[in-house]
Model the fold of this input.
Amino acid sequence: MRVLNIRIILVVIVILLIIVLLGVFFYFSMDYDGDGLITLDELNRGTDPFNRDTDGDQLWDGDEVAKYGTNPLKRDTDGDGLSDLDEVTIYKTDPLKRDTDGDSLEDGTEVLSIGSNPLTYDSDNDNLTDYEEVEVYRTSPLLNDTDGDGLNDYFELMVLKTDPLKNDSDSDGLDDYVEYVELKTDPLNNDTDGDGFLDGNDLLPLGDAKILINISSWSESYYGDEDNPGDPYFIIKFYIATTEGFETYNVTLIAGYNVSEVHNLTYIFNVPDNVKYVYITIAVYDNDTVDGKTYDQLYDIVTDPEFSFKDLYIIDVKYELIVNNTLNEIVIKGDGLSDGREQYPSALDASIEVIIKTIVDEKYSVIQVY
Done:
């Protein structure tokens, strides 16, 4: 009887042990919080088997472990300032890397402080990394042209060497874009041609302004006037007036001689670069004299295009300086006498053709914009 009782007790103990072991097994193999992790895994990882989101980042512990590889005990696994939830659902950044795009700026800094794109190292596509713009050059990683002058930040820094933070690097009153692209002046030199005028105040900032007067043709009649039967000639005076004063050139054209043999064909007058208009006076005389001492005025002078003459023999022209622009040719004709006094009224003593234009001594060239 005693032996039977012992056997019964042993059986009961074994059964109880089996029940306990089965209970323990089922306890550790169950997923009580439904987060995808069994209790044994949760206990091993330190998560709460009865809380599906131990770190409170709104990602279930099982998803963090199996799907994202993040730490279910930390809201921000990589410590970049963005929660794991925000990284995987909003910004699509890597919750395991502080710097997803590898630009040396943490994802949280890009998103929360700078506003740049944490998925690309060059948010504004200007060929400068976001890090270089923020930490080195202080330009905007969100604008490819920080100073708004029309030139790319990279191009200013690496090619032109201008200041990407100032639209007018040399403070001459002209934007860098205007200087480089439109005027071809130096955006790093406020006086490109070195004439003492800032480029912004200089009518011709690339060089010295000049007025060119060219006598392109000279022809004459071989008929002399009745009071002077000798070879005719014209005397022309050019007066160039600006705010700085005036210059005068005399030209003598003699019948029967080639124009290049008796005078220069071209006359160039320097013009101050702050002058917008010049006044050109052309005075024309012929060789008819009284006692060989004084010039006669050309009573019947003709010009083409038509200009009014002051005192019958002077043309006054107000000329606006426009680079490389040519004024219409001026053809001057006359014989010095009224038709009633001429031996051959239909014959003209001379015809002079004059061309006036603005020129500039251009000294500078620029490289091509990318």
Remarks:
- The mean pLDDT is 74.
- The two ends are 107 Å apart (CA to CA).
- The chain is about 25% helix and 25% strand.
- Residues 209-360 form a domain with the Immunoglobulin-like fold (CATH 2.60.40).
